[in-house]
């Protein structure tokens, strides 16, 4: 690559000749003498094909200089040759009449002007050829603003999310796993998770902790039959494990005993902790909707309003058992898509969002409509923990935003 670039770079002290200089260059005597004996009329000049061809090739090489020969640049050279053809014929005719007469350059030709026009044409051609490539690179590069932030891991963030997509199936459960349970059902699961969302809010825990807690509960219930009286014990223990994995400051076991109204002892919580870890084979590293949500919000160039509304819709989906049929990445993408539609009041899903989420608006529409329905009914019924949480000023009163009801229309289609 370095050798190629050196070949294209003009030598120091030897500037590349401009178009004006090349068109007005004085021809060698031997070229003029080749025309002796030709009829003294411009229309009757007998051309030497080999001489003309070699002259054009030399001129093209000089004009090209260090530039690559593209189709557009070749076309511009051809146009210039056609425009200069008549002047070249006239000069040749004069040389035939008086072989000793030197061709004097036309002082009226502005070399700088010709060179500036050529440079402008070159820049325009190059920019046109690079438009598609630069747009694609711009669409893909959403991490440039974080290039100086070591916590953003911009050097390998794409590899991370490639790994998440390849392994998100490991965090999923069968959407009908509750059929194997004898004493609990999906309504009891919804009550438990709605209560844990309130506990999570009171302890002021990180968002990652909540999503990992719900994931641990579902994966454990899929593999282990649990009696009704121990369901809450599974919930508080799952949150205890998620805190150990995600939090800097972990709640003590006594806090969990108090929050569960002393329904369980410290020993029972520790025993359940061992049972859950053994059942899940100590696998706490799974991609939850949270990791995808952060990436898709970044692709959407989100503000605080979009972020809070997206998380509100996603937490509403955590409570609903029927949403287990969707992969974590699709849940996160649908939450961002639905929130954008609710804010803008039209179907909004950009090419950048589609590129990074790997989902089109049409693919998200089914899940998005379900989220709109949850949003519409969030303040009603008995399970209102998420609605109360996002009705506070701390969470921007996101629950009070108008739902995107137009997505429920049967004629709605994916966004562009």
TrEMBL record:
Domain Cyclin C-terminal residues, every copy: 287-404
Location of region: Disordered: 1-26
Residues annotated as signal peptide: none
Domain Cyclin-like: 194-278, 291-373
InterPro entries: Cyclin (IPR039361), Cyclin-like_dom (IPR013763), Cyclin_C-dom (IPR004367), Cyclin_N (IPR006671), Cyclins_cyclin-box (IPR048258)
Record key words, sorted: Cell cycle, Cell division, Cyclin
GO biological process terms on file: cell division; response to gamma radiation
Family: Belongs to the cyclin family. Cyclin AB subfamily.
Protein name as it appears in the record: Cyclin N-terminal domain-containing protein
């Amino acid at each position: 690559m370095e050798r190629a670039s050196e070949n294209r770079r003009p030598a120091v002290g030897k500037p590349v000749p401009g178009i004006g200089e090349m068109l007005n260059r004085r021809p060698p005597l031997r070229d003029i003498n080749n025309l002796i004996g030709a009829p003294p009329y411009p229309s009757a000049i007998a051309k030497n094909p080999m001489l003309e061809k070699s002259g054009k090739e030399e001129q093209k090489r000089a004009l090209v200089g260090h530039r690559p020969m593209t189709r557009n640049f070749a076309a511009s050279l051809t146009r210039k040759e056609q425009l200069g053809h008549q002047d070249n014929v006239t000069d040749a005719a004069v040389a035939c009449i008086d072989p000793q007469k030197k061709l004097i350059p036309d002082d009226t030709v502005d070399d700088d002007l010709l060179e500036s026009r050529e440079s402008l044409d070159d820049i325009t051609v190059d920019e046109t050829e690079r438009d598609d490539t630069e747009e694609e690179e711009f669409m893909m590069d959403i991490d440039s603003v974080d290039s100086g932030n070591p916590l953003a891991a911009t050097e390998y963030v794409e590899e991370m999310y490639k790994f998440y997509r390849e392994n998100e199936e490991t965090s999923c459960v069968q959407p009908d796993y509750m059929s194997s349970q004898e004493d609990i059902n999906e309504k009891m699961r919804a009550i438990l998770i709605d209560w844990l969302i309130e506990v999570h809010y009171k302890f002021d825990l990180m968002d990652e902790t909540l999503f990992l807690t719900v994931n641990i509960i579902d994966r454990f219930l899929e593999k282990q039959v649990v009696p009704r009286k121990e369901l809450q014990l599974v919930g508080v223990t799952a949150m205890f494990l998620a805190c150990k994995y995600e939090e800097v400051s972990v709640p003590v076991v006594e806090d969990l005993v108090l929050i569960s109204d002393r329904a369980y002892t410290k020993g029972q919580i520790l025993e359940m902790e061992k049972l859950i870890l053994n059942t899940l084979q100590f696998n706490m590293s799974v991609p939850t909707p949270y990791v995808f949500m952060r990436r898709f919000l970044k692709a959407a160039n989100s503000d605080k309003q979009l972020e809070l509304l997206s998380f509100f819709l996603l937490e509403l989906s955590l409570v609903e058992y029927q949403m287990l049929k969707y992969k974590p990445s699709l849940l996160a993408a649908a939450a961002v898509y639905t929130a954008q539609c609710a804010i803008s009041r039209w179907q909004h899903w950009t090419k950048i969002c589609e590129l990074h989420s790997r989902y089109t608006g049409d693919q998200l529409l089914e899940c998005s409509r379900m989220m709109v329905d949850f949003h519409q009914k969030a303040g009603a019924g008995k399970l209102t923990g998420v609605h109360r949480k996002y009705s506070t000023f701390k969470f921007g009163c996101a629950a009070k935003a108008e739902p995107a009801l137009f997505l429920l229309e049967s004629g709605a289609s994916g966004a562009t």
